Amino acid sequence: MNGKEISRDAVELYNEYIHGDLPRRAFLKKLAGIAGSAAAAGALLPLLEPNYAWGQQVEENDPRLVTDYVEFAGSSGPVRAYFARPAQQEGPLPGILVIHENRGLNAHIEDVARRAALAGYLALAPDGLSFAGGAPQDQEAARDLFGNSDGEHITRDVIAGVPYLAAREDCDGRVGTVGFCYGGGVSLLCAAREPAVAAAVCFYGRPLRAEDVAKVTAPLMMHYAGEDQRINDSIPAFRALLDEYRVAYSLNMYPGTGHGFHNDTSAARYNAEAAQLAWSRTLNLFAYVLGPEPV
């Protein structure tokens, strides 16, 4: 089922739930009101919540890839990260830092990292919640742990993945970043803080502040959902800053989509057409700046 077939009110309620502090009981009660009954809400719930089996576009044991978990130095200790690279690698490759949403590293983000590796890159997906014991499998528990942890600590640890990746012997020193929701904003922040970043891509993430925009020299690409008022209200001011500081950027709007349209673990939010187009544009930017040829 495509997200277009599910009530927009239900999708927005789920976004409020997963991005805020709405208790699950209150979320389910409101969902029943939208769906018309508790039974209807129960049928709708699996289409809203993540099902990682739906979002596995690249198998974990794909023979074209080599994958593993690695650790690198964070601001107060080791950061655990998922790593993927082409199995037939010859010589150093550019790197891609893949940054999670507001629930830490999970199977979906690991799959996105494998997609990046299949395109010819070293892909690193840090778990920003490593210092707090790691991201829980349960999404509400992960949301709550993320919300109750030091946000600046999470961000510092994620961004530390850039110099780690650039310094690896199998990396050629050039790094691109891509992130989703929380990770989208951090991807942009990487371009302001880390000189190794050659391009940064943001999926429906928070814009940069003026002092950070002033530091950006790499090209940026932003993907926004047409029906995502919470994020989209900030776009005009952000564009004005990018223009003022003469930052090279492309801004892509996907009409009829909601926040999280790239996340294929949620049938209610996922929009296949927009997600595929946004990902192809992302890879084309990385290919233009980093190589290899677009796929």
Structural summary, described in words:
There is one protein chain. The chain is an alpha/beta fold. The protein is 41% helix and 22% strand. It is built from twelve helices and eight strands. Helix 1 packs antiparallel against helix 2 and helix 2 crosses helix 3.
Number of helices: 12
> Which percent range describes the beta-strand content?
15-25%
How is the quaternary structure best described? single chain
Query: In total, how many beta strands?
Result: 8
Give the overall pLDDT as a whole number: 93
Read across the widest sheet, the strand sequence of neighbours is 1-2-4-3-5-6-7-8
Provide key terms for this protein.
alpha/beta; 295 residues; single chain
List the helices and strands and how they pair.
Elements: H1 8-19, H2 24-35, H3 38-48, E1 65-73, E2 78-86, E3 93-99, H4 107-118, E4 122-126, H5 139-148, H6 151-159, H7 161-167, E5 171-180, H8 182-193, E6 197-203, H9 210-213, E7 220-227, H10 229-232, H11 235-244, E8 249-258, H12 272-290
Parallel strand pairs: 3-4, 3-5, 5-6, 6-7, 7-8
Antiparallel strand pairs: 1-2, 2-4
Helix pairs in contact: 1-2, 2-3
Concise synopsis of the structure shown:
The protein is of the alpha/beta class and 295 residues long. The chain contains 12 helices and 8 strands.
